[in-house]
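Why do we care about 3D structure at all? Because function follows from shape, and shape follows, mostly, from sequence. That is the central idea of this module. The next example makes it concrete: a single protein chain, its amino acid sequence, and then its structure expressed as tokens.
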Amino acid sequence: MARPEVAPKACCEANTADLPGNKKEEKEKTMTDSNFEALRDLIVNLTNDIGNIKNDIVNLTNDIGNIKNDIKDLDKKVDVGFAKVDTGFAEVKGEIKRIDEKINGWEKRLENSEKISYTTLTALILAVVGGIAKFLFSK
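And the structure:
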């Protein structure tokens, strides 16, 4: 690759423009009173904006604190609700046990009643058969 050639004058101008004592640079750096006024106004506006942002941050922090308190209150209410539900489940379990015991008692009574019924029916049938046999064979 061939390097582009730079004219000597352009090279020298580039070097002198970078020097601190260059008069062109000093002219550009001088600020007028209107520039200072504009800069001061800009700084005042920025300061006001920063103050507004700080106020907004304080408001947001307060809002976050309020939200945290609301969440704590809701947590307490949910915990109370869960405690009530747990108590209700315990009561229901107790009721189920009682009903279970009653059903077991009824089953036993029913079994006893069935036995008594079968025994009574058998005795009745035997009595009828015995009566018929006595009637038929007693002559």
